[in-house]
Amino acid sequence: MKLELFGLTEIPLVIKGEDIDELILSSLKKQKDSLKNGDIILIAETLISKAEGNYIDLKKINPSSKAKKLAEKSKKDPKLVESIINESKEIIAVGPDFIISETKHGFVCANAGIDESNVEEGLATPMPIDPDKSAKKIYESLKNKTGKNIGVIITDTQGRAFRNGAVGVAIGCIGISPIWKRIGEKDLYGRELQTTEIGVADELAAAASLLMGQANEGVPIVIIRGFENFDKLKNTQSNIKPLIREKEFDVFRN
Amino acid sequence: MKLELFGLTEIPLVIKGEDIDELILSSLKKQKDSLKNGDIILIAETLISKAEGNYIDLKKINPSSKAKKLAEKSKKDPKLVESIINESKEIIAVGPDFIISETKHGFVCANAGIDESNVEEGLATPMPIDPDKSAKKIYESLKNKTGKNIGVIITDTQGRAFRNGAVGVAIGCIGISPIWKRIGEKDLYGRELQTTEIGVADELAAAASLLMGQANEGVPIVIIRGFENFDKLKNTQSNIKPLIREKEFDVFRN
């Protein structure tokens, strides 16, 4: 029972059109390694947005009056605020130095997941348009080329309600179920389990984040090897939706 | 750059007065291993509560009228609800099948962290009375016996606002700072970082949870080895407080 995590090194600064699957295979080869059955590949969302050419050119943004008002309240650049509004379904909370919204994908997070780190000055990277689709493209290509059963998870770093500090979370996935449903299972004493849904994709993302860092580490891709529950959780049709709590079940917004 | 996680096996069902530090050392020895500098030891809170003899005997609880009212609303056992009230500073949200409160320690979570899994029928385990103190006792004993620089984290599994599925979180720690402050650091392009506080103890707890499981796996102790930022985060005086968001900064309760 041993779980191993390692980062892919020598990942160049990614440009539009880059094939992430080729990047993964060639980086593994350089490390004299190759994909194994059960490997879970975690990819930072910024890398995906860059490869997909999905940038926001802040200079070209023309802030609306709503954006200007929220910018004043949040002490943020009105152009960035306009972009946050564009990426959001609903603005949930605004205060000095934060804007929390629900993104178009359904994620409740700060700044609609727009990143101004690890991108050229004047540019920002929004979340990938469809992180599940991005994951699927890489997953299918890697499966075709290697024949291995793998998982692919797109990760972000997000703050939490009630706890300080951001942590790695999953925003797209395939090959593995994001939630581990353990309803009906028994504990060591034969009693029904109390906690029956584990956010396993988020736990994998948090683990990978320990290696990725957010600064100049340049480790946007991490492989988790030896996850013994992989076979139980294998799901070639999975996506991130089961991890998103629908607004109607969200006690902190109702 | 490789991170390794492994569970300690052959951990017996722990009873009151058990020395967790001895359990760790003897289990490592059986695996023909020993503590290394930089090892982070993650221990499930249920194990701590059991070793500290910290049980709730539900049969002996006499529910108050407040508990009966909340029990009706939450469809929970009034005796359990009375225990939740006893363990809490403040009840935050109640609905069918959930009670979210702030525990005496300051954690916002469901059921005040009271566990009815992996404990004898009729009993429940509350959170450890002082998880930092529990961690410190084990930490100091292990340091004295081995001379190694280590970290000790007490973990729980908690649900989140906005996301389905529970994940591993830290509720006590020592030897390593729970938050990684990266203020002033630069990204790959030399720009100031945007996300400057990483909840690294929670990421470590989430990673460990991948091995612990919550059912009958019987893996309540996990060691994380090779965390390359350990030296940066080493802190012999640390505790969990920096991870707790104070109510006044909590936008979802104000």
Descriptive overview:
- 2 copies of one chain form a homodimer.
- Chain A has helices at 20-30, 45-51, 65-74, 78-87, 131-146, 200-212, 230-233, and strands at 2-7, 40-44, 56-57, 88-95, 98-103, 108-110, 123-124, 151-158, 167-176, 180-181, 197-198, 221-225, 234-235.
- With 254 residues, chain A is an alpha+beta fold.
- A 6-stranded mixed β-sheet of chain A has the order 1-12-2-8-9-13. In chain A, strands 4-5-6 form a 3-stranded antiparallel β-sheet, with helices on one face.
- In chain A, a hairpin with a 2-residue loop joins strand 4 and strand 5.
- The model of chain A has no long low-confidence stretch (mean pLDDT 92).
- The interface between A and B is large, with 74 and 74 residues.
Which features characterize this protein?
homodimer, 254 residues, alpha+beta, 60s Ribosomal Protein L30, Chain: A, CofE-like fold, 6-stranded mixed sheet, 3-stranded antiparallel sheet, 28% helix
Helix content of chain A: 25-40%
Q: Categorize the overall geometry of chain A.
A: globular
**CATH architectural grouping of the largest domain in chain A:** 2-Layer Sandwich
If helices are DSSP runs of H or I spanning 4 or more residues, what is the number of helices of chain A? 7
Strand/helix succession of chain A: EHEHEHHEEEEHEEEEHEHE
Multimeric state of these chains? homodimer
Rg of chain A is: 19 Å
